[in-house]
Structures are given as structure tokens and as C-alpha cells.
Amino acid sequence: MHTQDPTPLVAQGDATPLRTLNRREFVRVLGEATVSGGLIAGAFAGYALTSAQRAEAAEAILDRIGKVPKVKLSKRLGNIEIARIAICRDDPPELIGPCLAAGMNFIHKAGYFGRGVPPEIARLPRESFYCDTTVDNTSPGGDPNDEEAAYRQVVNELEQTGLRYFDIMRAHFGWRSLASFNKGDNASYRAFKRLKREGKVRYFGVSQHAAPRERYETYATMIEAQIESGLIDSMQVWFSYASTPDEIAIFEKAHNAGIAITAMKTVMHGGGKMRSDAAKMAELKAPGMMGRACLRYVLGLKGANGGRIADCCVSALRNFDMFEENLGAVATRTAALDGFEVSV
């Protein structure tokens, strides 16, 4: 008899009633999933699991996945080492522990945690992980010229979360024109310099979006200007299977200049093209797993010098199904089971 309220391990796509599992049934399903080679989380679709069952399933998933490898960033960022997939503030709380256990050590949008970070993070030594905050004065509806708004957001977030400092302060959405970026002489960078002097941030970054409907310059134009400024230490860029050769070339140029590159929108933008390309998914040893294939494509791309272009990616993990599929893109144990050679 279940003594805890059962909940699904993976998201339900419809209102079909969920089945519960007694101990024998649970062990059978888990055992079959473990030896089948498919996604363990997927085997529990349509079932509601108790918290104890969920924990046991998560442990089996972690054992299947193995650790996510880390890469050393350029000297520009102090040669810090980060896992190739980042934790996202948008991830469900129940995935924070498994993400950390898999070796993920960079937290995107940590400032958005509000009043206190999750306990799994709070009990870690601050120097054992890295994080950024996305500062919203450059976001739609914000005032890109408001230096005080950028400064206050970071100060307030540090007070609320107790994180002490952010490794990277990112201009959220980036700048819409060369004039607004102004070769780096803008409100965001001025706020950054004040915050860095106070020990509240360490590196300056951008989460550059491309939105022609909002009258942005072309993507390559804006990123080129940011490279030339010499001020950007880390970039989040729209990088996917749907990225054009010109876009990939400018990402490569940025990385060669010592800028850390985090791929974003990797599944959202590249998923449609990848889903329709069965041959590419097969080549990436991820047949039928669009998310895994999308991440393997981007994180495996090499530049003309033979080095990687993207250091890591951020991909919101909505449930254990996505957790298992996406982390399996680069986790060494999963890659070995798939017959895929992980490139770092």
C-alpha cells in the first residue's frame, strides 16, 4: 500500500488516468528498462510513482547516464572548468539534486532564484560551482540606459539568494543596435565595472538574442562588434542545427578570441530540422531522440583549428525524460553505450 501521494515521473500529454505500481511491479518495470537500452524515464510514462519510487528511478537514471564531462574555459575566465550542460533556474526543483550528482556545476540565471537558492545548492561551498545572472535593463521593456537598474538588480539578487557573488553578469537579450552597444560604453558595462570593484561579479557576458521584428542588427553584426570591443568574456548565443554557416563562423571567431560560448535555444530552434532528419540522428547515435541529437550536434562541432566552438549549452530540463535524454548527449557512460564518441 502506498503511503505517499504518487506523482508522474514524466509529463503527461493528456488526461489519461495514471496507474500506480506496487513494489514488485515497480522493480519489474525498472529492471526491464535498465536492460532494454532505452530511456528509463520513458518506461514509467503513464505511471504515478511515490517519492521513494521516484528517488530509486532517479538513481537508476544517474547510474545509466554517468558523469557529464567538464571543459576548461579560456584564461580570460580564469581557466575555470564547467560541465558541458548547465543547470537552469527554470529546471524543476526535483532535478537540482540529480543535476549536481551528474557533475553539472554551472547555474544559469541563478539570480532568479529569489529568496534563497535550493537547499542542494545552498549547502555547497560557494567556490565549488559557478553561476550567472541575466540583468534585465537590456530586456524588452527595460531601459538599456539605466545603469542604476542594472546595478540594483544584481545587488538585490545577491542579498535575496545569499550567493555572495555571481561569476558572470550577463546583459539579458543583449543590445539591439551598434549604437546601443556603443563599443562597450553603455550602462550595462558601467554597472558591471562598479559591481566588479565591489567583488559582486567577476566576468562580463551577454545573452545575445536575435529578433529582427524588434529591429535588432543582424546577429553576426552585433556579435562582431562585441568581439571587437574586447570586453565580453562570455556569450550565450542562439546555436542549433538550424544555425547558418555565417552564424557558426562568427561563433567560432568569438571562441577563438577567448570568449566562452554557451549555446542556447539549441533544441527549441534546431529541433524541427533535426526531427525531420532521421539520417542525422542516426549519425549522432541518437535515433528517435531529437534532444540528444541536437545537443550532440552543437557540442561536437569543431572549428577550422580543430577546437570546439561551443563550450557548453543551457537546455531547460522540464522532467526526468528530458533530463535523461539531454544529459545523455554528452555523458561519457551514455555515449559509450550509444557508440558515440564524446568530443571535448
Helix count? 15
Principal-axes shape call: globular
Tell me the distance between the termini: 47 Å
- Provide the number of structural domains: 2
Mean of all residue-level pLDDT scores:
92
CATH C-level class of the largest domain:
Alpha Beta
Oligomer: single chain
Key features?
344 residues, single chain, globular, 16% strand, 2 domains, alpha/beta, TIM Barrel, 3-stranded mixed β-sheet
Describe the secondary structure blueprint for this structure.
Blueprint: E1 7-8, E2 19-20, H1 23-36, H2 40-43, E3 47-49, H3 51-65, E4 70-72, E5 81-83, E6 85-88, H4 96-101, E7 106-108, H5 119-122, E8 130-135, H6 147-161, E9 166-173, H7 178-181, H8 187-197, E10 201-208, H9 219-229, E11 234-238, H10 245-256, E12 260-264, H11 266-275, H12 278-283, H13 290-300, E13 312-314, H14 320-327, H15 332-338
Parallel strand pairs: 2-3, 6-7, 6-13, 7-8, 8-9, 9-10, 10-11, 11-12, 12-13
Antiparallel strand pairs: 1-3, 4-5
Describe this structure in words.
The protein folds into 2 domains: 7-64, no CATH class; 67-338, NADP-dependent oxidoreductase domain (TIM Barrel, Alpha-Beta Barrel). With 344 residues, the chain is α/β, with parallel strands linked by helices. Strands 6-7-8-9-10-11-12-13 form an 8-stranded parallel β-barrel, surrounded by 6 helices. Helix 9 packs parallel to helix 10 and helix 11 (266-275) crosses helix 13. The protein starts with 6 loop residues before the first strand and ends in a 6-residue tail after the last helix. It has 15 helices and 13 strands. Strand 8, helix 6 and strand 9 (166-173) form a beta-alpha-beta unit. The model has no long low-confidence stretch (mean pLDDT 92).
